Amino acid sequence: MQKLDSYQQSLRQLQKVSRDDYLQDDNIQTIVERKLQLSIQVCIDIANYLIAQLGLRAPEQLENVFLVLGREGILSQELAQRMVGMVRFRNILVHNYLDTDADIVYNHLQKGLPDFEQFALEVVNRFLS
After folding, report:
1. What CATH number labels 2-128?
2. Is residue 127 a contact partner of residue 54, using CB atoms and an 8 Å limit?
3. N or C, fewer C-beta in 10 Å, the chain?
4. So where are the chain's domains?
5. Burial 9-47 (b: 16+ CB within 10 A, else e)
């Protein structure tokens, strides 16, 4: 969770960059893409850890780890669905980096960060309450 928080702090700082500046700066784009990728990966790793520790059946597809947590009441169903979309987005960042649309990434930067916060809150509240 500390890593996720660290990545999110960096991304929140980068939210201040205007769309035009973002689209014109390859370095900023690379940083944002990488920090988003790492944030999503941390969430995947946490989900996999919880599934293993709780003795839950691991899904065949990586993106479905969040659906397992949603079914078990660890995550809300709505967040679990959004997190599935994040895994798909991560796959584009990792595997289709030549086809990555900078506008879409910028939109994720501007609108997607609350999902990471909600993920952390729901997990922490479930296990530390």
Report:
1. 1.20.120.580
2. no
3. C
4. 2-128
5. eebeebeebeeeebeeeeebbeebbebbbbbbbbbbebb
